[in-house]
Design a protein that fits this description.
Blueprint lengths: L5 E4 L7 E4 L4 H13 L3 E5 L5 H12 L3 E4 L3 E5 L9 E5 L4 H18 E7 L10 H7 L5 E4 L8 E7 L9 E4 L5 H9 L9 E6 L5 H13 L5 E3 L3 E4 L10 E3 L4 H14 L6 E4 L12 H7 L3 E5 L2 E5 L9 E3 L7 H7 L7 E4 L11 H11 L3 E4 L3 E5 L7 E3 L5 H8 L18 E4 L11 H8 L9 E5 L6 H12 L2 E4 H15 L6 H9 L3 E3 L2 H4 L6 E3 L2 E2 L1 H4 L2 H10 L3 H12 L7 E5 L2 H5 L5 E6 L2 H14 L6 H17 L12 E4 L5 H15 L1 H12 L2
The chain binds 2'-deoxycytidine-5'-monophosphate (DC).
């Protein structure tokens, strides 16, 4: 997951392959609440693990529900409709799917069983309306105190034990601002339907109806058969009780699927489609209807149970004019697909965009405008005319996961066609971490499917002598930019270890080269290692520790002097150059392997400083060593690396020298990042645009 202030995307080209979607947010938070209110244990599979579900899980724990979560399943032991805690302060982030239903459930529980529950969120949550829900609950006898601006969170829900609710008359709720108010009532009111039917009537035209369908569907799974007359009147039958279904599988998120359907429509141009696993035909999520809209724009989409496949059909895409009231979230993806259309597109019926994570109409208009599109934003529609000339841009995401995911699709601008200007421009996505709300690994998934032309993928090379700290520096720079990392020394070290394991002499050039050409190395992810250096396996054997031994370094120094070995490892090194970018460290990254890198750093430090650092490193691992010996060793190795005939250690002509003898790691990282800000493709593109405009 990218926990960085900004992520630069190079121009992306084709796309194909399989993505497995995270669980649906709408389903996850509904079933969590239902399981929390039900009697007994519910085991949930493929639950979404994201910011929004984390706040719901934390709230359930606060309320005394049993919560046992592992990677594969989440076990919730519910309250059985009886409060265990009568006082709690719950922080619900920016999760509307937690705030609205919990407010309703805790309002009726406090009013009948006594208690005080204060619900808060992030500042944006306090700007998202909840007044219609409060107005529906107060006439029943619920005590709801505004802790801030009336009609918005934070709220306090209070009551005395033994309180009675007025449930004889139908409960009236407005449905034209957010369908979540109705959903909240439907989820909460079975708590008080033991002795009588509870009737809810919707005032005004209900928006986002498919989300209410999800609610009804899941209530049925928990044993509550709501009767309804259209979308006007809903009856929770007398005697309703939440009955756990025991086990429940959460579908992949259909809104998240929209980005990959769009990806296929835009970029799956070869034989292979983009295959989406986790959601498909028969989904209970309304956003599955996005498939029809994508088809209307010319996408070729197939679907079966639990899967969707998308491929480019018509190109450019067909402009669309659509009432998207039924797919408000996925409709954002249409607005970005409209950039690739053959004329202006109009997306109507989206007033609810204005009260989501951000004012999405305003946000989308501003950011698509930066890309060169002509955008008209109305109260409840947006019209997007594709760019006549695309522009590179740094795009704001407004702490809105969907803005970040949608806007990433603009990185395919190079496919928009020569008639539309230069094309192939880089983009910057600000605050990419906001995708954690529903899809923490979105960008990893995107880069797993999308390809970029090699020259478009930026590389930063960091070369230097042994123990200059280049590995640490390169890893920190890669992490700060969200780029891939190539520690090329590891390849030579692994080649040395492979030779040793095979009983091959490190001087047998042909034999070592053969081994180097078929290394079968596997790298763990940073997250898996929980550490800046990922774990490494050689032919299934973990060699993370062994790689760092001094003897391994000496072996590497010998095998790396063999030209055939260097040739054998060349292609492997190039294969690390993948979107969004690469930081490569070694001896010849800037001179031989990536001669076109826009930033080349040559790290130096005096032999004394380096010997000192290596000594500290060894001592910290409990290994005794003499500084004088270490220094002699380093100098011998430097001499060999510098004087060998092939790819000798030396700065590239255009390298920037960084002597870090007296710098902390943080200072070195800051220096490299500031050099990068000057030279990175986005800065260059923005400067070129500024120079070209009058
Ligand atoms: O950076 P390191 O200490 O892990 O490198 C181990 C050896 O591999 C070192 O003696 C030089 C050699 N090497 C190389 O020749 N070319 C590279 N790009 C990286 C390392």
């Amino acid at each position: 997951m990218y926990d960085i202030p900004a992520l630069d995307l190079p121009p992306l080209g084709g796309a194909s392959g399989t993505v497995t979607l995270p669980g649906s947010k709408s389903i996850s938070n509904r079933v969590l609440l239902l399981a929390g209110l039900a009697e007994g244990e519910t085991v949930l599979f493929d639950l979404l693990d994201s910011d929004d579900t984390q706040v719901m899980l934390a709230a359930l724990r606060e309320l005394g529900c049993g919560v046992r979560a592992s990677e594969r399943e989440c076990r919730i032991t519910g309250l059985g409709g009886r409060l265990r805690t009568h006082r709690a302060e719950l922080f619900l982030g920016n999760a509307g799917t937690a705030m609205r239903p919990l407010a309703a459930a805790l309002a009726v529980l406090a009013a009948t069983q006594g208690g005080r529950f204060d619900l808060r969120g992030v500042p944006r949550m306090h700007e998202r309306p909840i007044g219609d829900l409060v107005d529906a609950l107060r006439p029943l006898g619920c005590t709801i105190v505004d802790l801030g601006r009336p009609g918005y969170p934070p709220l306090s829900l209070r009551g005395e034990a033994g309180g009675q609710l007025a449930l004889d008359a139908p409960i009236r709720v407005r449905g034209d601002v957010s369908s979540q108010f109705l959903t909240a009532l439907l989820l909460a009111l079975p708590l008080v339907a033991a002795e009588r039917d509870v009737v809810i009537e919707v005032e005004g035209e209900l928006i986002s109806k498919p989300y209410v369908e999800i609610t009804l569907n899941l209530l049925a799974r928990f044993g509550i058969g709501v009767q309804r007359e259209g979308f006007q009147r809903f009856t929770i039958p007398r005697g309703a009780r939440y009955a756990s279904p025991g086990r429940l599988h959460v579908e992949g998120d259909a809104s998240s699927a929209s980005y990959f359907i769009a990806l296929g429509a835009i970029a799956a141009t070869g034989g292979a489609p983009v295959h989406i696993a986790g959601v498909g035909s028969g989904s209970i999520q309304g956003d599955i209807a996005f498939v029809d809209a994508a088809r209307a724009m010319g996408a070729e989409v197939k679907a079966g149970p639990g899967w969707i496949e998308a491929h480019r059909g018509r190109w450019p895409l067909a402009a669309i004019d659509i009432d998207a009231n039924h797919i408000p979230d996925a409709a954002m993806t249409l607005a970005v697909m409209a950039l690739y259309a053959d004329g202006p597109s109009r997306i109507r019926g989206i007033a609810s965009w204005r009260v989501k994570e951000t004012d999405r109409i305003a946000a989308m208009a501003a950011e698509l405008g930066k890309l060169g599109a002509a955008v008209v934003a109305g109260d409840d529609f947006i019209e997007v005319r594709p760019p006549a000339q695309w522009r590179a841009a740094s795009l704001r995401t407004y702490d809105d996961h969907r803005m970040a995911m949608c806007l990433s699709l603009a990185a395919f601008n190079g496919l928009a066609g020569a008639s539309r200007g230069a094309g192939a421009l880089p983009l910057r996505i600000e605050d990419p971490r906001c995708v954690a709300k529903t899809f923490p690994d979105y960008f990893e998934a995107l880069f797993g499917l999308a390809t970029a032309a090699e020259p478009d993928v930026p590389v930063i090379t960091i070369d230097g002598p042994t123990a200059s700290g280049k590995g640490t520096l390169a890893a920190a720079v890669a992490q700060a930019l969200g780029y891939h990392l190539l520690d090329s020394g590891v390849l030579y070290r692994a080649a040395g270890l492979a030779a040793a394991a095979a009983g091959t002499s490190p001087d047998d050039e042909a034999a070592v080269a053969r081994l180097a050409g078929t290394l079968d190395l596997r790298f763990g992810s940073h997250a898996e290692a929980g550490h800046i250096e990922p774990k490494v396996w050689l032919r299934g054997r973990e060699i993370t520790e062994e790689l760092r031994h001094e003897t391994t370094g000496l072996l590497a120094s010998r095998v790396s002097a063999l030209p055939a070995v260097r040739r054998a490892l060349h292609g492997v090194q190039l294969s690390f150059r993948r979107a969004p970018g690469l930081v490569a460290d070694g001896r010849d990254m800037g001179t031989v392997v990536f001669p076109d890198a826009p930033l080349k750093v040559f790290l130096t430090a005096s032999a004394g400083h380096r010997a000192d650092r290596r000594h500290k490193q060894l001592i910290s691992k409990g290994i005794q060593a003499s500084i004088a010996d270490l220094r002699a060793d380093l100098e011998a190795r430097d001499a060999r690396d510098r004087n060998r005939a092939v790819a000798p250690l030396k700065p590239a002509e255009d390298a920037l020298l960084l002597d870090n003898s007296d710098l902390t790691i943080e200072q070195s990282v800051a220096q490299v990042l500031s050099w990068w800000q000057e030279r990175c493709p986005l800065t260059r593109a923005l400067r070129a645009q500024a120079a070209a405009s009058p």
